[in-house]
Amino acid sequence: MLVIQPPFQVEIRVPKLLAKAEIVEINGADAAQFAHAQFCSDVLALPELHWQIGAWLDAQGRARCVFVLLRVEADRLLAWLPMGSAATMATELQRFVLRAKVKLSVAQGFHLMEDEPTQLENGQVAATHDGWCFNLPGPAARTMHLARNVEQQAEDTAAAETWRLADVMAGLPWLHESLACQFTAQALGLDRLGAASLDKGCYPGQEIVARLHFRGGNKRHCMRVVGDCDTPPQPGTCVLETAGGTIAGTILYAASRQSAGFQALAVLSNTHPTGAGLHLEGMPGISLTLQDLADAGLS
Hints:
- The chain has helices at residues 31-38, 86-94, 157-170, 185-188, 206-215; strands at residues 16-20, 23-27, 50-57, 63-73, 76-80, 103-106, 110-115, 125-128, 131-135, 143-148, 220-227, 238-241, 247-256, 262-269, 278-280, 288-291.
- It is α+β, with helices and mostly antiparallel strands.
- A six-stranded antiparallel β-sheet has the order 15-12-13-14-11-16. The chain has a five-stranded antiparallel β-sheet with strand order 1-7-10-9-8.
- The model is unreliable at 8-12 and 295-299 (pLDDT under 50).
C-alpha cells in the first residue's frame, strides 16, 4: 500500500533589516599601515578576514569615534560605526593621509542585517555574496551581516532595539557623534576590550593611554545603568547626583528591556559604585542601579 506523507514544514528565517550601515572604507597599498598609525588598536596584528574593535583618539587621548574594524582584504579595511557618522570620520581622517597610498571613502549601499547565528571562530569574518558576516559578543550568539543592495524592506525597529540591548549587555562602548572627544580610552573601557594598544608604537593619544595605564589617575569608567523608566534616555543625557545636582556621568546609549525599564551604558565618576543617590537629568523620580561590566556573562 502506498502511503503519501505530508510535506515537511521548513521554517525559513528571513534576515532582519536593522538600519543603514555607516562605513568608512580604507583602500590602498598603505591602508593597514595608515590605520595602524591613526587608530589605537593593533591593526597590523589583524589577519585578513578578521575584525577587531577600534577607536580613533585625539591628541588628548579622547575618543573621536569607536568602530568595528574589518580587514576584508590585505589592503582593504572597513570601519563600521554603529553610532557614528562615516562622512564625518572620512572627512576628518582625510587630513592625515598626506603622501600615503590610501583612498578613503564612505561605503555606499550597505545595511545592517541580523542573520542566523553562524559558527565562526572568534574575530573571524565570512565573505558572502553581498557583503560580510561576523559574530559580536552578547548574552546569546548573534551574527551581524553587512549587506549591500538588499531587497527593499522596512527596518525592523523591534529587532534593532533588541540588538542594541545586547550591545549594552556586552558593554560595547559605541559613541554617538555628539559625544566625540569627551572620553578617554580607559573611561570607555577600550583597554578592557583589547582596543587600546600599549606596545605598538605611536598613535594619536598614545601618551595619555600609557600614562593612565601605568601611573593611574583614570577617574571615570564605563558601567551599565538599569532604570525603571520605559523611555530610554538619549545619548548625552547627564546622570546627576540627587544631592546638589552635580554631574556624575553621561549616558552613551540605552535600550528598552524586554520586561520593563531600560539598560544603558554610561561613563561615570569612580565615586558612585552602586548608583544610590543618582538620577537622570530631567527625571528625578527614576531609580537607577549600576552594574559592573565584569558581570556581563557574555557568550
